[in-house]
Amino acid sequence: MIREINKKKFLLDNRKPYPLSMENYLREVWLSEWICSSNKLSGCKLTLNETINIMKGNCLLEKTIEDHMEVKCHEEAIQFMEKMASRKENISFAFIGKIHTLLTDAEISDFRKNNPVIQNMRYVPCHFKEIPSQIEDLISWYILEGLKMNAVLRGTLLHNKFIAIYPYESDNEKIARCLLNYELLKEGLTPIDFNMPSKTYFNMMSSYVNKEDITEFYALILKLVDARLELFLRLTSDN
Question: For the domain bounded by 2-235, which CATH number is listed?
Answer without folding.
Answer: 1.10.3290.10
